[in-house]
Write a structure and sequence with these properties.
This protein is an alpha/beta fold. It has helices at about 25-35, 65-70, 90-100, 110-120, 135-145, 150-160, 175-190, 200-205; strands at about 15, 40, 45, 60, 75-80, 85-90, 105, 125-130, 170-175. A hairpin with a 2-residue loop joins strand 5 and strand 6 (about 85-90). It binds adenosine-5'-diphosphate and guanosine-5'-monophosphate.
């Protein structure tokens, strides 16, 4: 549940960050598949699509000129340069998903999460960690989606990103995928039991209290 003055007040925003290769996409896709009431905030990016990525599903892929225009028009809730490319969250998309009553996952970097914390203080901030730096490197190499140079840049950034873990509400270590997924899902389940998500009128009616 997000502060009402941001006009995002029906669902919960789950802001999820991790160093590249930790398994955030894998975990988020599983969460989305199993929970149709949660939707991904599809970010805009200037990065080139990877072979298995679809425009407007994984990202909306745009030119740098278009991205810069969107910044000028104030269309982003947050934006950041990550690994040399621009990424941003559209305010319009967040509002549309929220009005439709969905919980929303934002898969964004630590810089973007910090910006969002000022706007949406009631969002839930989750950080996914790899079991070790060595495993992180292995996963990036085995994923076979990035060149050696890109992998080196991502690993370089990983230490700075991991140092931001204290900005988050929850930490999930993605060692075994099934365990990490259960932990992530538990956070979602618990968030839905928060008092702020409960309809007071329903409680009054059910228990006949004033
Ligand atoms: P991110 O989105 O954080 O960059 P991905 O979800 O793309 O990371 O995962 C990076 C690679 O590691 C992928 O090849 C994925 O299949 C693999 N992976 C993810 N989680 C695990 C895990 N728990 N154990 C082993 N491999 C994993
Ligand atoms: P990738 O290029 O591997 O898909 O993502 C690289 C990084 O960009 C990831 O850490 C991802 O979370 C981050 N990212 C994706 N979308 C956004 C966004 O809209 N804003 C910000 N700040 N980061 C994003």
């Amino acid at each position: 549940m997000v502060r009402s003055n941001n006009k995002i007040n029906k669902g919960t925003l789950f802001v999820i960050s991790a160093p590249s290769g930790a398994g955030k996409t894998t975990l988020c896709l599983k969460l989305l598949k199993k929970n149709p009431d949660i939707k991904l905030s599809v970010s805009f990016t200037t990065r080139k699509p990877r072979s298995r990525e679809t425009n407007n599903v994984d990202y909306t892929f745009v030119s740098k000129a278009r991205f810069m225009k969107m910044i000028d028009k104030g269309e982003f809730a947050e934006w950041a340069t990550v690994h040399g490319n621009l990424y941003g969250t559209s305010i319009k998309r967040l509002k549309e998903l929220n009005s439709a009553g969905y919980d929303i996952i934002l898969d964004i970097d630590t810089n973007g999460a910090r910006q969002l914390k000022k706007r949406y203080e009631n969002a839930i901030y989750i950080f996914i960690l790899p079991p070790s730096f060595e495993v992180l490197k292995e996963r990036l190499v085995d994923r076979r989606t990035d060149s050696g140079e890109v992998i080196a840049r991502r690993l370089d950034n990983a230490k700075n990103e991991i140092a931001c873990y204290k900005d988050y509400d929850y930490i999930v270590v993605n060692d075994r995928l099934d365990k990490a997924y259960r932990e992530l899902e538990s956070i979602v389940v618990a968030s839905r039991l928060r008092i702020s998500r409960i309809d007071p009128d329903k409680i009054k009616k059910t228990y006949k209290i004033k």
